[in-house]
Predict the 3D structure of the following.
Amino acid sequence: MKRIGVLISGRGSNLQALIDAQRAGELGGGEIVIVVSNVETAPGIERARQAGIPAVFRDHRGRKREEYDAEIVSLLKARDVGVVCLAGFMRLLSPVFVSAFPNRILNVHPALLPAFAGLDAQQQAFAHGVKVSGATVHIVDENLDSGTIVAQEAVPVFDTDDVETLTQRILASEHRIYPKAVRILLSDRYRIEGRRFIIGDGAA
Amino acid sequence: MKRIGVLISGRGSNLQALIDAQRAGELGGGEIVIVVSNVETAPGIERARQAGIPAVFRDHRGRKREEYDAEIVSLLKARDVGVVCLAGFMRLLSPVFVSAFPNRILNVHPALLPAFAGLDAQQQAFAHGVKVSGATVHIVDENLDSGTIVAQEAVPVFDTDDVETLTQRILASEHRIYPKAVRILLSDRYRIEGRRFIIGDGAA
């Protein structure tokens, strides 16, 4: 089950980081076999195609969430996808979706969760005046940015930063930890105790 | 106004870090002139006396918060204290206290605020399964752990940690950033914009 589906809504820079990691042999044997976008004009679609990965657009507008999610699940299952990576996919997943891939859906968030969940996390952190922020890869559940944390990395916030420079620093961190988290998940050498994600014998 | 009062309730390990920094000339010219404990048996009282610093016990039990706070403010003002450092002082300050030292009261918290405010922050972080936690020095206002952040430092949370090993790692971080934050505050080379504490020309 090392076949990966990636869901995007935008430029797909984290998709690119996963593609690059796969090419470099640093995705733990994972293979990205399909990219799905809910936005027709998402530049990430073109990134996928340039990498030789099938990429499809499925419009969510005017459709019930459960119905839409069931269609995406079918698309992924038809490709034998075992792990789903959200990469800037701007929708909450319904229980239909989450239960189809239990503990096998990852998301990356541009803050050190549980701080600054939700939209515009970098702006939230900047406005709050934190001196440290970062990035989080977590398992996706039905709630917003609340699932088990797989990997985090801290980055400094400098007094000379603006939101854009902070966003870029966090993005670089996202690109480092997302492939790492996928590798850990694919290794299957971990256990989950309560909310703690604990890596087994040398799987990191 | 480089005379410092320190408020404690317990062992006073952060008090010791401030004493050590002062001795090493790393407290920005700050001088700890009084230590106040609201707990008679606090080991920090003895630490202070061993360092030649007057240390007094004032019991808060059975007294109105505002009345108690006014007495502590009087004690501090009588010593010409300009900056107040909370070091494990387990009480919320009333507006009476806060308004007597506007933006001149610091506290250290064993988490990366705004994550894990309140009691048992290390246990909260551990149970939440974060991979990064840390310490925060912030300006004290009337609300719990909510004031402007002056300094933060991240520490890793390892899979092999328990709450005690994590607590010790965070404590070492507290001891590093608390003297640094005092130094910055005493330098007066900073400005506060919204919630952001921004250090001026080379004051760090």
About this structure: Chain B has two domains: 1-102, 108-204. The first strand of chain B starts at residue 3 and ends at 8. The domain at 1-102 of chain B is CATH 3.40.50.170 (Rossmann fold). The first helix of chain B runs from residue 13 to 23.
